[in-house]
Design a protein that fits this description.
The protein is mainly alpha-helical.
Length: 644
Amino acid sequence: MFSVYRKAGIRDRQLIAAYEACRRITRQAGGTEYAVSQLMVPALRPAMWSLYACGRVTDDLADTGPDDPEDRAARLKQWVADLEEDLRQGTSGDPVRCAVVHTLHQWNLPAAGWHRVLAAHHQDIQGRRFATWDEWSSYSQSVNAVYVMQGALVLNGAGMSVPVRLGHFDLNGWTDTLRNLVAVQGPAAPVPYHVKGVELRTWQLWLDAFSLTDTLEDLGQDAAQRRVMLPAEALDEFGVRAGDLLAGRCTPAVLTMVRELALRAERWFTTTAPLSGGLHPALSVGLQTVTALCKARLDGIRRARNPLRPGRPALSRLARARVMLPARTRAALAWSLCPVSLGHHAPAPDAPTSAATPPPDPAPGTRPRSSPPRPPAPHPSGVRPPQLPADGLPRHVAIIMDGNGRWATDRGLPRSEGHRAGLADALTDVVHGALEIGLGHLTVYMLSTENWKRSVDELNVLMELLTGSFAAPDDRGLAVASMDVRVRWAGVAAGVPPELAAALSALERETHTRTGLNLTVCVNYGGRAELTEAAARFAVDAVAGRVTPSRLSERAFARYLHQPDLPDVDLLIRTGGEQRVSNFLPWQAAYAELHFTDTLWPDFDRRDLWAALEDYARRNRRHGGVPHQRTDITAVHAEETRTT
């Protein structure tokens, strides 16, 4: 089994465990889906398992658990909110979400459509009734189309033309919700054969046949949960009362309806048989196999004496073997005759983080740091960090340290004194404050690529200050090397004085085992320069054949940045009264909240940092989606006061 993950470029143990959880869910709950996944080449299987498991988990959250619909709705909403947050963070502690996040990033799949799926499941929880077949079909498309389209995009990304587009699932305006799924394919995507007339309805009809098979199998389970998932139009056609279904009474009318609808679903599958003609031969085998397995299930439904018996009827091993044995042979032959160059189209292997490969041993003369890290020093005023709600603390804060020169000029001092105060006092205190409140990542803008335009004298003093701050012992430097702070350097090495580059590299080596605050210092950094350099490195790899330009995703491109594992910036602070971002972290800060303050950087300390974090905690972040309701920080403070 582990060879599957190696061929899919998945080597991380946590990811393998996550995908294994999805595989087990698919195998236990989705017999048809799992069987067909085995017909795919190994590189495609994990993605298919994760997408199915995601759909199964959301469906189970809506259908099972506490009897109170509000409890189920709250659990489902929280799961989707956690998934969205995990997508922003790039990983998850939940195995299914971890695999889904990895699949979406690795195959460059869009994350659109979750809220419409959530809305559909919420209606399930509250009790859904369909008046007509059109209403039932629209619901079927709304729940399943997201996963169908993402699966199609995976196959397209693997170099196989899958003529399925959103137009095929356009019922009652559903294309408006899923339009973003098509945008990701770009102009180089395979052109669909036909998106109008009979073929459009044919794709809809195939998915309806698949959904009707599931609905008929789940009649007993749905009845036990007081739900009727067939339209009233179907019940009226055969003279069936909803009360009989809910009570589990298999009346002659119910038996006739189930058998006739099973025959109808079979006819729908037969009508859609030409769809497999435009696919890659192996995918054609897969679609035909799904259809054959569904027909076998429908045959079992027709033969059942009591189709309302709770529990999903299992397809017998003999019936499954009759379909799968020849299908495996045909699929293997199809892959051998029409191979796909997965070496170019398969997702790239997991990129190791900078912590995965320890840096070289410290250079001679550097300070050994074998003692345990010391705690942050308290502020002289005795002030303590505020108590923020768990979801109110940003993961990554970036600061543009502006106002050093003006601070010195206002006091009749040389500009160099402003830089000295900003490094020795302000930055050190802010680092202590970040440690106190539990911040994970802090990135500071120390020297930009544009700062070289300043006078030679000021630059010389600044280089000396930076070199001394990073190379000096703690009592004269930044006082971070002995603390639980990991220092990393982001910027262009060319042009940086050798002494400063050596000091930065040494500090990176000395602190690489620290697990507290990640302090990234941007020295000789420019956002456009970082993106230009990343694009140049990607172009070199593309020319060498190590990567395929058509498979470029955001996650793949991020591997070429200065610090590939640096998370997105949640809060960007600029001191000094200016209100611009000045070419600072344009990639990482694309969705950052902005906080501007008139305080000049040398006057900025941990109290100002904490005030900015409190302001952040009050904001309602959307990331292009619906608002995420945070814990009310005012209520938290009121509770603290009451308790005190």
